[in-house]
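Quick illustration, no need to memorize.
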Amino acid sequence: MNTVTIRANMAESESLETVTEHERILQEIESTDTACVGPTLRSVYDDQPNAHKRFMEKLDARIRNHDREIEKMCNFHHQGFVDAITELLKVRADAEKLMGQVSDTNRRLQDAGREVTAQTEEVIRCRIQQRNMATTVEKLQLCIPVLEMYSKLKEQLESKRYYSALKTMEQLENIYIPRVSQYRFCQIMAETLPKLREEIKEISMSDLKDFLESIRKHSDKIGETAMRQAQQHRTFNSEVQKQVTLSCAKPLYGLNGRTPLHHNGLSTEAADEEEMDEEVLTAQDLVDFSPVYRCLHIYTVLGDRETFENYYRKQRKKQARLVLQPQSNMHETVEGYRKYFNQIVGFFVVEDHILHATQGLVTRAFTDELWNMALSKIIAVLRTHSSYCSDPDLVLELKNLIVIFADTLQGYGFPVNRLFDLLFEVRDQYNETLLKKWALVFRDIFEQDNYSPIPVENEEEYKAVVSRFPFHDAEIEKQQFPKKLPMSQSVPQIYSQVKEFIYASLKFSESLHRSSTEIDDMLRKSTNLLLTRTLSSCLQNLIKKPHIGLTELVQIIINTTHLEYACKYLEDFITNITNVSPETVHTTRLYGLSTFKDARHAAEGEIYTKLNQKIDEFIQLADYEWGMAESDGRASGYLMDLINFLRSTFQVFTHLPNNNKDHAAMSGKVAQTACMSACKHLATSLMQMLLDTELKQISMGAIQQFNLDVIQCELFASSEPVPGFQGDTLQLAFIDLRQLLDLFMVWDWSTYLADYGQPTSKYLRVNPSTALALLEKMKDTSKKNNIFSQFRKNDRDKQKLIETVVKQLRSLVNGMSQHS
């Protein structure tokens, strides 16, 4: 019962909840949009089983309820509805009429508005286009400068204006491209610009390499032009200075012995050079420097200037080493030297231009370093190659090239003092080549000379000689033509050649920027070398030649005397050239006096030597029969021939032209000395013949024959073969022989031994050793040749006397040796 009650209560409570829930659901359905009914209906099925049936029941009840309400409302409003329908039917006709009017109006309106609509659409479309165009123009106005700059960039690249192109790139990157960076073409441009920079960098470096190759090829032409301009400038200055000098005083001597011709105040040489090049060419006229400028600017803009500077300097150093390398045969021709100098000058002219035209590409320190390196190499090369030069003309041209080379580079600010110091070494080489050349000249003159006085037939010939040689002799000038001058033809030729040597030496001193005193000193020193070494050596060799006879030697002595007198004129000649007074403290004197004195003494000595050699030749013909019993009663034939030769020889000395007192004294002195020397040598040779160790035995007959020969020698000496000897001076040459022979011929041993050592001794000149040697030769022949037969026949005591004399002579000889 309770259970049923409980269940009934529970069922009742559940029924109330269900009704309440269904009521809520229905309210939601009524108040909610039909689109959202789904979740509400789903909750009906989610509840207890069979709940949907009860909901359907509830729903049907609600529907019936609403139907009743609708029916009530319809019933309430039905009369009003009917009235409204009636009213509607009344206005139906009016509505249809109005509808027709509205339709007609609408049609007319549509017809009228169709054109307006079309125009309106056209206006709208145009407005849209206008707006688009305005936007496009605005954007294009932003893009056009970029495109114009890029087009400008392309044109600059095509025209190779790379520096401007880099500036344009910089503007594009920093100003223009950022304004329109949203466009793709700008992005492409921005990506292209770095590549273009690298391309410009490569092209500019290629242009620089071409430039370096170009200046290497054109250095020769650049240097030639620069050196020619320097030479023209120097020539012009020298001509102006010469005109100033000529306005004050006319020079006594020209460089070639002639005063140069002048035209309009300038020499013909200067006029020719002035007309040669009126337009002054510079390095810029010969070489286009724009590549190096462009490359420098480009690398500067790219921030890589240091790399460019290092590359340029490195390449120029390499080129400098190539330029400084000479050709192996450069010393053979002047063109080799000229090309060498042209290349160097061209190199440094370019460097100087780069130094001043660019800022920092090369520095003064760099060019100084290059120049010092080049200068050391140049000096070494010139020292080596100039030493190969044997032609003085080539050395002189080399000197002129060095001077122009130095002047050219000095004009560009390079120090060249070491080059002028080198010129002093080259000057020594030049002097050496001159000395060798003039040695050949002197040798030819001596070989072609006839060594006889110069004959002059008339006044013209006489003037021709004295114009070449300063000869003045009042006595000869008074003589009638034809006449003879004392010197031979070689004297004026030698004098003229010495002057030519001075001219040649002077040529080297030109343009060395030295004072007149220094030039004077150089001329005198080189002339001294010519006189003391070259001419002296030629004279010594000439004197020693075998074909030069006594007559030629005498003429050489006369020639050297005249050349000695002419030395003062050579000094005056140098003074006139240099305008340096000989009284200057440090003026060098010419050593010609000593040179010609030495040559004269050598010639005199050679005369004496040749005479003695001739005497020796005659002596060798002597054929004495040393064991002869008696003499022939006359002098030996060889000796008479020798005396006749001496007479004729000294007659040649006597008949030499002695128009001048000094010549007469000189030739007389030489003849006297030669005669005395010949007599002494003859006496010495005869004495040696007697005392020859190979001669073991001598007979008294041989002594008598020998005495006859000595008598002829004494007669020759007393006949005064050469005038000027006083008394028996010449005979004293044979005094030793005479006293020795007298001692043996008279057999006066007692007197000799008694008076030995006394100043008044009759046989003072007889040496005991000489007497002993001859006595022993005679003693040894007594057994075979009966030299002492008369003594053995008369008295054997005389033989003992000889033995006694020999012993006494030996004691004298031993005493002399101990004393000595």
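Residues 245-278, 785-795 have pLDDT under 50 and may be disordered.
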